[in-house]
Design a protein that fits this description.
By secondary structure, the protein is of the alpha/beta class. The chain is 42% helix and 15% strand. Strand 2 and strand 3 form a beta hairpin. The structure holds pyridoxal-5'-phosphate. Pyridoxal-5'-phosphate binds next to helix 3 and helix 6.
């Protein structure tokens, strides 16, 4: 079947005939066509046939205030009418970018010195990696070029960001990762701990593995470590207790810069303004995006500490300028919308709100621990992951060929719930403006999807998970 199988000139046919979709099986798309969303309705989205969906990961972990925020529309409109564009190259600036930079420095998880703006999380992480290299050159350690990410980590699709990511499918046949990238363990306690091993002991083991990797590579060659405080695209995985404290000791011993990718965790998600606060991370560089503008416009930021900024000053002296930038760095409309977003967070006390709702949300999900398909539920704030298993006692996973997670996703969608599925993990990061009633809606729809999946597996006699 090709695009011609759709009604001629329908949006579906035109989509299939014209667009390439990210993270989509392109061949399959030619037969299935797109799911076209027509409008946002608060924390729901409505498709072109009027079906309403609750998106339990706020789009791509980003629409923190819902899908149509009037105040953000007005902020963009007002800024466009005043100054629709100007760049920030060669000493130029604009007031909304200045205000936003100040605001980000004021709320940073650890003291930070300066802010650089760009348009996406991927760009922010690419910039952070460039700055780590720049820093190591400035301080006379040019061999420190290697960057360590984590298996299953996700930092974006641009060349350095995807090299730092631990996602083999996103690197294969793109000739990536770049040669200076290495990867260490995924801090996935439920899946990775040995019998009887505490979270703290597991964290110690992972820190020791990181140290071994650095020593094997040669500490004089390792310049930066990049990590999401809680991992999103790996399937919503919160770190085990003590993890970042132990990791930080290793990084300090070997003068390795720490880049915290706060693209998902930033702005309240885990019950603090930053994931670094929730999990005790002390980064040199912080990247953020997504909820920075409630996802209403593409903008990201990189925050650098004084040590990194001093090095940038030195390099600027040496090179004649900080020779880096984007046409849209500090685009006044994006910074005005981000500034308004931060104002809304302050007015609604986003952190207080997430903390108040977290016990309801986490409790509703934890209740699924009684479900025959569910092996683990854990998370912080309004962020959580559920792992589906064939055998709870032994943590034995399902045969991937059964696509159990995908089945849950299909049943959920049929029931008006958009569910992010990563293998047999279900990830949750709803808009931060959800209410208790929305949590109940999510719980009821998810419960129905899990039951329908269980019935389907039982009917097909696949429950044992052997395929
Ligand atoms: C932790 C993390 N970092 C970076 C990115 C990339 O951001 P973007 O898609 O805006 O480039 C993502 C996207 O999901 C992410 O989850």
């Amino acid at each position: 079947m090709t695009a011609l199988a759709f009604r001629p000139n329908s949006p579906h046919a035109r989509d299939v005939a014209s667009m390439v979709h990210p993270q989509t099986n392109l061949r399959l798309h030619e037969t299935t066509g797109p799911a076209i969303m027509s409008r946002g309705a608060g924390v729901h989205v409505v498709d072109d046939e009027g079906r309403r969906f609750f998106d339990s990961t706020a789009g791509l972990w980003c629409a923190s205030l819902g899908f149509n925020v009037e105040r953000l529309a007005n902020a963009a409109y007002e800024q466009m009418r005043t100054l629709g564009y100007y760049h920030t190259y060669r000493h130029s600036s604009n007031s909304s970018s200045i205000d936003l930079a100040e605001r980000l420095l004021a709320i940073a998880p650890v003291p930070m010195a300066r802010v650089l703006f760009q348009c996406s999380g991927s760009e922010a992480n690419d910039v952070a990696i460039k700055l780590a290299w720049y820093y190591q050159n400035a301080v006379g350690r040019p061999e420190k070029t290697k960057v360590i990410g984590r298996r299953m980590g996700y930092h974006g699709s641009t060349i350095a960001a995807v090299s730092a990511s631990g996602k083999a499918d996103m690197q294969a046949d793109f000739n990536l990762p770049l040669p200076m990238f290495r990867h260490t363990d995924t801090p996935h306690y439920y899946r990775g701990h040995e019998d009887g091993e505490s979270e703290e002991a597991y964290s110690e083991r992972l820190a020791a593995n990181l140290e071994r990797l650095i020593e094997e590579e040669g500490p004089e060659t390792v310049g930066a470590f990049i990590a999401e405080p809680a991992m999103g695209a790996a399937g919503a995985i919160s770190p085990p207790r003590g993890y970042f404290e132990r990791i930080q000791e290793v990084l300090d011993r070997h003068e390795v810069l720490f880049i915290a990718d706060e693209v998902i965790c930033g702005f309240g998600r885990t019950g603090n303004m930053w994931g670094s606060e929730t999990y005790g991370a002390r980064p040199d560089i912080v990247t953020c995006a997504k909820a920075l503008s409630g996802a209403h416009l593409p903008i990201s930021a990189v925050l650098v500490n004084a040590k990194v900024y001093e090095a940038m000053l030195d390099e600027s002296d040496k090179q004649g300028a900080f020779a880096h930038g984007f046409t849209h760095s500090g685009h006044p409309v994006t910074t005005a919308v981000a500034l308004e977003t931060l104002k809304i967070y302050e007015e609604m006390d986003v952190v207080g709100r997430v903390r108040a709702l977290a016990p309801v949300f986490q409790g509703r999900l934890r209740a699924f621990l009684d479900h025959p398909l569910v092996g683990d539920v854990r998370g912080d704030g309004l962020f959580a992951g559920i792992e589906l298993v064939a055998d709870k006692a032994t943590r034995r996973p399902f045969d991937p060929a059964l696509g159990v997670g995908a089945r849950v996703g299909r049943h959920a969608r049929a029931n008006g719930l958009i569910q992010r599925v990563v293998g047999d993990r279900l990830a949750f990061a709803p808009p931060l403006v959800i209410t208790e009633a929305h949590v109940e809606e999510l719980g009821a729809k998810l419960g129905a999807a899990l039951d329908a999946t269980l019935d389907e597996l039982s009917e097909q006699d696949l429950r044992a998970g052997q395929g």
